[in-house]
TrEMBL record, chain A:
Source species of the chain: Paenibacillus rhizosphaerae
Subcellular localization(s) per the UniProt record: Cell membrane
Keyword Transmembrane helix: yes
UniProt topology in membrane: Multi-pass membrane protein
Domain named ABC transmembrane type-1: residues: 93-304
GO CC terms: plasma membrane
The protein, known as: Diguanylate cyclase
The keyword Transport belongs to this UniProt entry's keyword annotation: yes
Family: Belongs to the binding-protein-dependent transport system permease family.
Length: 318, 585
């Protein structure tokens, strides 16, 4: 296990280096920079500003400077926001994380329950209805369902706020603050869960169907075990194993924010910030954020490999 | 033949406008398609599009019909006004702000020496008066007595001198136009380190400051008379060549405007509280909030979460605002103009006649006014109709006329060849058009294609989802026409600047330069008006770019707000201190 980890970590560093170079070149080669879209400036002033921002230096030199700073824990200074990139991440990522963690949790719980039940009762009326509903939920675009729910629940019925994270001007603290945030996040969480639950349910259902047909399930039943024990102890555990792979992918998603949802619900998350930065060509922020996601992805895969080993002794790590 | 063309065009337009309505329903309505509301909306739309004769339905302010419909959330607010603002980012230092939304925030935190009225003419603000020397090169500002910053410290001429000086520091990295357009005497020596201070800036006494320019510039009075930073606060750590410390002060501004920053919540709100040290006295409403609203603002206005926001002046939007019952509506034309930049390096487009033919041949009325349900107007000069310099005297309106366009192309030597496309010296007349992805471009392309086909021009549109990619394509020179719009313009010279500073490549007309300079050489408004008239007539004839449109907007706001005015040049900043909420039963 020890040697395995050292090996993996060396691989990770190499991958991250390659990723950093790729990310840098990708952004450096996209047409236009932060200054070119500012129609207020004269050509001479633009040249002067490029000099100050270091955008006129050769590409490799710029990459070197960037990497050097990153190693010193400095992800740069956002040109558009005029603040350190890491400070911005800190301000926005946790809002995205809050939405993602709650909706991911709900998605998994609902998907596991529905997946197990519909697999167990395969081809029953319940299974059919669930499958149809799931396909419907998956195929409705998020902006539509988001706007639709705002119209119904916020504008017409006035049960929930139409967006944002706080009541405008509110000075709530402590419990009142928490209640306010929960009130505001209900709508976006509903939409995110609705959209995510479909594919996951299908995944668990098919895993479950495979497992139920295995010999050891028959053996367990033959031993006279109760049906719920068979289902949840023996079948579900094994059906969940392949889902560990998904855990690795969930990690960057938890921090990555959701561009569309955040925009519709005016949620102060990182997805929105990223999207604006892209149209402004705010390179330090873009590169910093993409790099962060790369790091999380690499860590996520490592995590799922190790979890596999822990959950399933048959899996050996070399 | 002709008739058929018209039919096709009309049907296309009808389909086009239906598409637009459908689109706007989708995005503005906040989820639209439900029950009775939808049918109502539908009938209103048909009624609206049948009378869409061109002009916007609303020209005068409209007063709310029924304030009792105001949502409770808004009724309960007694000392707070909330306005939607797309996305303030948190850098609240004038001249160092990169986002225009932060500029909106700054305009409430900081006063100016000189501001402008609704016509764009200079009026006193922090400076009570000013003198301009005989040779037009020296401006002397006289500050009001007892001016104070929001922290209670006095504001003097030294603060003004400090503010101007740091803009010429070599490390200044903001996007103020002062360093590149206002030539203060000795400023370049300061910038290069040859001089310890800027010789053209003289503090006469604590309330008087004068500035001398290398050559007269009529915009300098207002441009230099902008926001003033406190030297004691922003200049504490200033060393020549190092302004980076200012970045740490962005979120703790010390200003001299009507409001003070109370709290900035990233991505959510900017909260203000009335500044008791403001020279006109404390504003009437204690609290003010800019609410970040990235998405649609309709839902917030309808639920009473915000008091004020703007929409395109389409008939549909106006009807919807009226139907809410509790909103006042204020019509407004933005102080900029849209245009088609022409690639003057291309042989065909170098010819003035070809450019004029395009202006005649494009049905701008349909594209920019009718298809937008009246939320626009056709432009023919580089100045908005609200500007003091605007004129229609001697201006060719280039009314849509395919025959005239054909005639001009014939005169230019472009003869109809195979497939109905004009040719000259074996080359086909092709227009490669670039536009950014927007509703307006979606309207432009089908109509323009039809228009160009009618006059024998091959039209090849290309649409960009990303503005930067479009700009670099333009910089590479691979285009014939591209849709652009200027930023908000203050002085009439701002709108013609692009014709003399090399931004429109290959356009070099000494007469335009001469008139541009002449108009800036005096601050007498009547004299300047006359010069601009001549300049606009010249540009209107030459068409270095093809002028297209002005945008019309409406502000919808809570009917409880009194004394609300919006200036096309400075927005709500000047009238905000007077806004008050009248009690509602």
């Amino acid at each position: 296990m020890g040697t395995y980890l050292t090996k993996r970590i060396i691989y990770m560093i190499v991958i991250l280096f390659a990723a950093s170079f790729l990310i840098f070149s990708l952004y450096a080669l996209t047409p236009g920079d932060f200054i070119s879209s500012n129609i207020k400036l004269s050509p001479e002033r633009k040249a002067e500003l490029r000099e100050i921002y270091g955008l006129s230096k050769p590409l490799l030199e710029r990459y070197g400077i960037w990497m050097n700073n990153v190693f010193h824990g400095d992800f740069g200074f956002s040109l558009a926001q005029q603040q350190p990139v890491l400070k911005l991440f800190n301000q926005y990522i946790w809002n995205s994380f809050l939405l993602a963690v709650v909706s991911t949790f709900l998605t998994w719980v609902i998907a596991v329950i529905i997946g197990v039940v519909s697999a167990y009762k395969q081809y029953s009326w319940f299974d059919t209805i669930v499958m149809v509903a799931i396909f419907a939920a998956m195929s409705i675009p998020s902006f539509f369902i988001g706007l639709f729910l705002i119209k119904i629940l916020a504008v017409d019925l006035k049960w929930l706020p139409p967006g944002g994270m706080l009541t405008t001007g509110s000075n709530a603290t402590g419990w009142a603050y928490i209640k306010e945030v929960i009130h505001h996040m209900t709508l976006p969480v509903i939409v995110m869960t609705l959209l995510g639950v479909g594919s996951l349910t299908r995944y668990f259902r098919s895993n479950m169907i495979d497992v139920i047909k295995q010999d050891y399930i028959r053996t367990a039943r033959a031993k006279g075990l109760k049906e719920d024990k068979v289902l949840f102890r023996h079948a579900l555990r094994n059906a969940l194993l392949p889902a560990i792979t998904l855990v690795g992918f969930e990690l960057p998603a938890l921090f990555g924010g959701s561009i569309i949802i955040e925009k519709i619900f005016n949620w102060p998350g990182i997805g929105q910030l990223y999207m604006q930065s892209f149209s402004l060509r705010d390179y330090p922020l873009l590169m910093g954020f993409t790099m962060l996601l790369a790091i999380l992805t690499v860590i996520g895969t490592l995590l799922s490999d190790v979890l596999y080993h822990i959950a399933d002794p048959r899996v050996r790590l070399h | 033949m002709m008739k058929k063309g018209v039919y096709l065009l009309t049907s296309l337009l009808i389909v086009g406008s239906m598409l637009v309505t459908a689109c706007s329903n989708n995005s503005n309505d906040g989820g639209s398609s439900s029950g009775t509301a939808q049918t109502e909306q539908g009938t209103k739309d048909t009624a609206a599009s049948s009378d869409a004769g061109g002009t916007s339905a609303l020209t005068e302010p409209y007063t709310a019909a029924d304030l009792s419909k105001l949502p409770d959330v808004a009724k309960q607010r007694t000392d707070t006004i909330i306005v939607a603002l797309t996305d303030p980012s948190g850098a609240f230092t004038p001249y160092f702000t990169q986002s225009g939304y932060d500029g909106n925030v700054n305009s409430l935190l900081f006063g100016s020496l000189v501001t402008v009225d609704d016509k764009g003419l200079p009026v006193p603000d922090l400076a009570e008066k000013w003198d301009i020397s005989e040779d037009q090169k020296t401006i002397t500002y006289h500050l009001r007595k007892d001016l104070k910053f929001s922290d209670g410290s006095p504001m003097t001429a030294d603060d003004v001198a400090f503010t101007w000086t740091i803009l010429f520091d070599p490390s200044y990295d903001g996007d103020s136009i002062i360093p590149s357009t206002i030539a203060i005497q000795g400023a370049q020596d300061y910038k290069s380190g040859k001089a310890k201070s800027i010789s053209g800036i003289k503090v006469v006494d604590p309330q008087t400051i004068s500035v001398t320019l290398d050559k007269p510039n009529a915009t300098a009075l207002v441009t230099l008379g902008s926001n003033i930073l406190s030297k004691a606060y922003y200049g504490k750590d200033y060393k020549f060549g190092n302004l980076s410390y200012i970045k740490n002060l962005h979120q703790t501004p010390v200003g001299n405007g009507p409001y003070k920053l109370e709290k900035f919540i990233p991505g959510q709100e900017v909260r203000f509280v009335a500044n008791e040290n403001y020279y006109k006295g404390k504003p009437k409403t204690e609290h003010f909030i800019y609410k970040t609203s990235e998405g649609d603002a309709w839902q917030y206005l309808e639920t009473g979460e915000i008091d004020y926001t703007s929409f395109p002046a389409t008939t549909e939007n106006i009807e919807k605002l009226k139907s809410l019952g509790f909103t006042n509506i204020l019509p407004y034309t933005a102080s900029n103009y849209g245009y088609l930049q022409v690639n003057l390096e291309h042989e065909a487009l170098k010819d003035k006649k070809v450019r004029q033919a395009i202006a005649y041949g494009l049905d701008r009325q349909s594209i920019y006014v009718d298809a937008n349900e009246g939320a626009g107007a056709v432009a023919n000069i580089p100045a908005p109709p609200i500007s003091w310099a605007y004129t229609e005297d001697g201006i060719n309106p280039y009314k849509f006329d395919s025959e005239k366009a054909k005639q001009l192309l014939d005169e230019a030597g472009w003869k109809v060849g195979a497939g109905g496309i004009r040719e000259k010296d074996g080359k086909k007349l092709t227009i490669h058009y670039l536009g950014s992805k927007s509703k307006q471009t979606d309207i432009f392309i089908p109509v323009a294609k039809e228009n160009f086909q009618a006059i024998g021009v091959d039209f090849q549109p290309e649409v960009f989802a990303d503005f930067n990619s479009l700009v670099s394509k333009v910089e590479s020179g691979d285009y014939d026409l591209v849709s652009f719009s200027t930023p908000l313009l203050q002085d009439p010279s701002d709108g013609v600047m692009q014709f003399i500073d090399g931004e429109i490549k290959a356009y070099d007309n000494p007469k335009v330069k001469e008139l541009y300079d002449k108009a800036l050489a005096t601050s007498d408004i009547e004299e300047r008006k006359a010069v601009y008239k001549e300049l606009f007539q010249l540009l209107n004839d030459e068409l270095p770019v093809i002028f297209t449109n002005y945008k019309k907007t409406v502000y919808g706001y809570n009917g409880r707000i009194e004394n609300l005015k919006v200036s096309p040049f400075v927005g709500l900043a000047n009238s905000l201190p007077d806004w008050s909420l009248k009690p509602v039963q």
